[in-house]
Amino acid sequence: MTPVHFSFTSAFALGLMGLAFHRTHLLSALLCLEGMMLSLFIALSLWALQLEATSYSTAPMLLLAFSACEASAGLALLVATARTHGTDRLQSLNLLQC
C-alpha cells in the first residue's frame, strides 16, 4: 500500500471512528461525515487520474454533488433541531417523542 492510499484510508477510518464514538453533538457528526466524503472524493479523483480513462472522470463530480446535497440536508436538520430543542446535543433527541 502506497503512502497516498494509506493516508486516504486512514482519513476515512478516522472519520468513521469519529462518527461512531464521538456522538455528542449533531455538528460533530456532520463534520465527520464531511471528512469521510472529502477523503472519498480525493481518492476517487486520484483513481480516475491513475487509470487515465475519461469515463471514470464523472464519478468524483457525482460524489461531490451528492456530498453537497448531504451537507445541505444535514445543516437544515441542524437548524431545525436547534430551533425546536434549543441544542444540537444528540442525547436530547428522542424519536418516540414528536
From TrEMBL:
Lipid bilayer topology: Multi-pass membrane protein
Nuclease listed as a keyword: no
Keywords per UniProt: Electron transport, Membrane, Mitochondrion, Mitochondrion inner membrane, NAD, Respiratory chain, Translocase, Transmembrane, Transmembrane helix, Transport, Ubiquinone
GO biological process: ATP synthesis coupled electron transport
Subcellular location per the Swiss-Prot or TrEMBL entry: Mitochondrion inner membrane; Mitochondrion membrane
Domain of life: Eukaryota
GO molecular function list: NADH dehydrogenase (ubiquinone) activity; oxidoreductase activity, acting on NAD(P)H
Record field: catalytic activity: a ubiquinone + NADH + 5 H(+)(in) = a ubiquinol + NAD(+) + 4 H(+)(out)
A Pfam family: Oxidored_q2
GO cellular component: mitochondrial inner membrane; NADH dehydrogenase complex; respiratory chain complex; transmembrane transporter complex
E.C. number: 7.1.1.2
Chief location category: mitochondrion
Transmembrane segments: 6-22, 29-49, 61-82
Residues of the signal peptide: none
Classification via PANTHER family: NADH-UBIQUINONE OXIDOREDUCTASE CHAIN 4L, NADH-UBIQUINONE OXIDOREDUCTASE SUBUNIT ND4L
Function comment: Core subunit of the mitochondrial membrane respiratory chain NADH dehydrogenase (Complex I) which catalyzes electron transfer from NADH through the respiratory chain, using ubiquinone as an electron acceptor. Part of the enzyme membrane arm which is embedded in the lipid bilayer and involved in proton translocation.
Family under the similarity heading: Belongs to the complex I subunit 4L family.
Name of the protein: NADH-ubiquinone oxidoreductase chain 4L
